[in-house]
Amino acid sequence: MVNRVGPSLVDFDMEQNKSTRDHILLTICRKGCFQDITIPLYNLEDHRVNRMVQFGGTVFFETDDFSSRLGGVLPKTLTFCFAQPNTIFKEIFHSSFEKIKVYTLKLVAVNGEPIYRLDELITGIPTWIKQKYFTVDYINHANEPILEKSYLSVAQDRYKANVAYDTTLELPKIWIWNAVKLQWEEKLI
Predict the structure, then answer these.
(1) DSSP sequence for 137-166
(2) Of 44, 48, 59, 150, which sees the most CB atoms within 10 A?
(3) pTM
(4) Could you read off the pLDDT of 112-170 as tens digits, one per residue?
(5) Is residue 3 part of a domain?
(6) How big, in percent rounded to 5, are the helix, strand and coil portions of the chain?
């Protein structure tokens, strides 16, 4: 199917959205010659935060493209940010630039056990609550702003923090994005 696209870039975006395949074929004119180029499509909806865990006054999630760029970490990095002032993770320094929280904290392990994904965190939470005291290993990339609002990950140091679970805080829960209802739904862990 041949479609002429233009003159606006929005027309190009709309044609990409209409595609039922994972790629599109473009015919372009370069130096007077027509060339066919196949480019893969990248669905932003498939690469966004769609699950979060609230635990101990802190929100944990795997970074998407946008938050990865803000924090200077790879996409799908298990990161966390403080959601309440009385978080049990208060011993952990959290970077903040221009009153914006930047996701520079990477969860590495709990009680010496590596934690790479949100599912591993969810599985471990009931055990850590029963223990009450546990140790968290993390990396604080402590980004420094460069070129105004751009950030570059400059620190790779690993830190440890001792944590004491506080039973007066909200129960841990999973927040799942419902793309049909366009709202977050919660489920207790």
Answers:
(1) EEEE---EEETTTEEE-----EEEEEEE--
(2) 59
(3) 0.73
(4) 999 999 999 999 999 999 999 999 999 887 655 555 555 555 567 788 999 999 999 89
(5) no
(6) 20, 40, 40
